Each structure stands twice: as C-alpha cells, then as structure tokens.
Amino acid sequence: MTHYIQEDAFITWRVAQNLLDYGIIGFNGETKASASTSHLYIFISCFFNLIFGKEYFIEPLLIFNSILFTIGTLLLAHLTLKNPWHKAIFIFLISILPPSIKISILGTEYGILFFLEMALLYYGFNKDKKWALVLFPVLIIFTRIDTVIFLGIIFLVDVFWNRKIRWKYVLGGILGILSVLSFNWLYFGEWYAYTFTFAQNFDHFLTNFGNFWGMLKLPGNFNPVTIITLIFELLCFIYLIRQREKRNCFLWMIFVFGWMQQIIFISQNSLSDLYYWIPQLLLFVPVLIFVLEQKEKRNLWLSLLIVFYILPMAVFQTMDFIEKGNAEWNQHSRTSLSPNTNTSNPSKS
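== Glycosyltransferase RgtA/B/C/D-like domain-containing protein ==
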C-alpha cells in the first residue's frame, strides 16, 4: 500500500536482471561488480524472474520470503517451547513485530537467511543431522558473508555447552568461507578491507546504539525505549536460563549472537536498518517466552504486552512505512525519471 520495498532489494533484483540479460553479475549492464551482498538471493531472484517474468516476479518472491520466514519462526518455536498453543501464539506474536514485518515483506534476503539459520539450529544442533551441519553453513555464508558472526557464536556456545567439537560443522563453515571468498576472488577479483580505530569504534557505538539496538528509533542519540526494552529482555533471559531446560543452549546461542552482532555492526559504522532486524528479533524471544509461560496472571502479562508494546509498535510501524513509502515513491522515483525530462541534461545525470 505504501509502495515501499527496501532499496537493497531493488539492487539485488537489478543485478539478477542483468545476469539474465547479459550473463554478467553486476549493477551496470555488462560490468562485473559485486553490487549485491547476497549471491544466493541473486540466483533465487533470477529463478523467480525467469519463471514469472520481469514485471510479475516480485509478489511471488515476497510470498516465498514470507513463507520461509514463517517456517523459520516455527522451527524457533520448536526449539524454545513445548506447548503447541504456546508455539502458535509465539509464531503470531513474533510475526507482527516490526523487524519481522520488514524481514518477510520488504524484499531483501533476510527471510531466507532467517529460515536457513533456524534450520541449522533445529536440524543441525537439535536433531544432530550431519548433512545439516555441512549444508546450512555453506548456504548461510553464501547468502551473506557477515553471517560468520552467527556461525562463530553458535560454534563457541555449542563447544562450551557440550564440551565437544562438531567437526562436520567446522567442515561446513570452512567450505562456506572458501566458497564465497573463492567466488568473489575468481569472479570479481575482489577482497574486502575496512579499518577503524578502537576509539572510533567505541565512540560510534555510544552514539548510535540507542537507536539501532532497539526496534523503535527516536530523534537524538539517547533512546529510553531501547534502554527499557534491553533491560526487560535481559531480565527475562536470566529468568529463563535459571530453569534447567534443554532449550537453554539455544537461548544462549540466539541471545549472545543478538548482542555481539549489534555491537560489531554499530561500532563498524554499519547504519543500514536491515543489519539489525534478525538480532532485534532474537533478543526479544525471551520476552515472548516469559509472557507465554506465566502460569499466574498470564492474561495480565499478555494484555500488558499488547497495550505497551504491540499496539504502539503497530502505530509506529504504520507511520514508518507511510513515510518511507512516500520517500521511495515520490522522491527516489522522481529522481530516477529526471534524466528523461526536458529540464535536465541526460549526459550530466
């Protein structure tokens, strides 16, 4: 309704179209360039483009992303809850959070990525399927190379928790890293380099964590909503891990990952909103589990969650989408069409 698709999705889709038109992965025609960070999503976008056509592939692809994200939430529910009704409510509650809406319907690769990461935890570490420990790390890294943070945190928590190394998982990680780096080097001839001093990293973290750590952004650096939410998430996490449950290992995995990814990305000047969707979502999981498993005054807790979190978030999200949609539809499209007007010189645009 708001004509809003994340601009990164359009970058990937243009690269996918160029791959079909020219047989070249790149943003500008026949020029090779790793313009999109998600190689796997380029190939998936190509497939949908090929099947449904250039003008009709977006809606089926968004549906596909949403279905995979929903399956990912189901797998996460299996990892953290036992009661079927709790799982059903959990899937609903987690799916209406702002990051979930963005992950599933804004066209980026994060719906696919969330599914792959939860499938790794469920089939690889919960069901101990050897094929999953090898296959999913390769697909995850080929989706985004920065997922080495996720895979590394999972490895460390698993070794600490089970006092053993899953060598199949190590193999999967090595194959994943080798595959994407080899692809980038052989196809694009590129390596990635980025330098920032510790002082710059720390200063950047202090300046931005209030807005990029939480789901709700406010003007200025200090964001009390984020602080309150973080404290409540931490308290719920501590409450849950004090119980002797098999799921505690997975709670540690997702919670430590949520903190570490955001610390690393914020300190490294990564201010695109999409980098924080999955961590924001996973950090909020203990809150939902805590509310669902309250045997006394459960309805009160659910009411408080709805009144003080879900409804305000829905209002904010609606305003956010309308504002972004207006910007994408009116400003960006007008800019892209300007070279064809009589008032501008196409050769200088």
